[in-house]
Amino acid sequence: MDGFSTFVELVDQWAWIGWLVLIATFLVIEMLSLDFTFLMLALGSTVGLVTDLVGVPVWVQVLAAALAAALFILFLRPPLLRRLHRGEDPVKSNVEALIDLRGVALSDITQITGQAKLANGDTWTARSASTTPIPQGSPVIVSAINGAIAVVRPAIEQ
Q1: Shared-domain flag, residues 101 and 56
Q2: I want to staple 126 with a disulfide (CB 3.0 to 4.6 A). Which of 54, 69, 91, 114 is the partner?
Q3: What is this structure's pTM?
C-alpha cells in the first residue's frame, strides 16, 4: 500500500508537466488539422493545468478538464467555425458552376455521342443521362461532368 500512495503522490506532484505536454500535443495536432477540435481540447487541458496550480486533487483536475473541453467543443467551436468560413466565396466555380446550367443540343445527344452549347457560351461533348436520345435543338440541363464530357438531361420548358 505504501508504493501506491507514493505513486499517487508522485502523480499529484508532477501533474502540471502532464498538462503542459497535453496542451503542447493538442496544439501541434491542431496546427496540422485546423479543425478547432484539438484547440478546444488544449483549452480544456489548460483548465486542468490551472486547477492543478490551485491545488485541486488530480481526479478533479481530469473531470474539470474533460467538462471544460466538452463545453468548449459544444459552445465555442461552432461559432469559431462559422466565423472562419464567413469570408468564403459562395459563388460556384469550375465544374460546380456547370451543374444545372442550361444549354441547347447542337446535335442529337445519346449515351454515346452528341454536342451541346451551354448558357455560358461553351460547347461541350455531351452524353445523355438517360437511354432516351435528346433531339437536336432541344433544351438541356447539365447533370454532371465526366472529364471533358457533359452529362445532360432534357430540360422541361416552363
Answers
A1: no
A2: 114
A3: 0.56
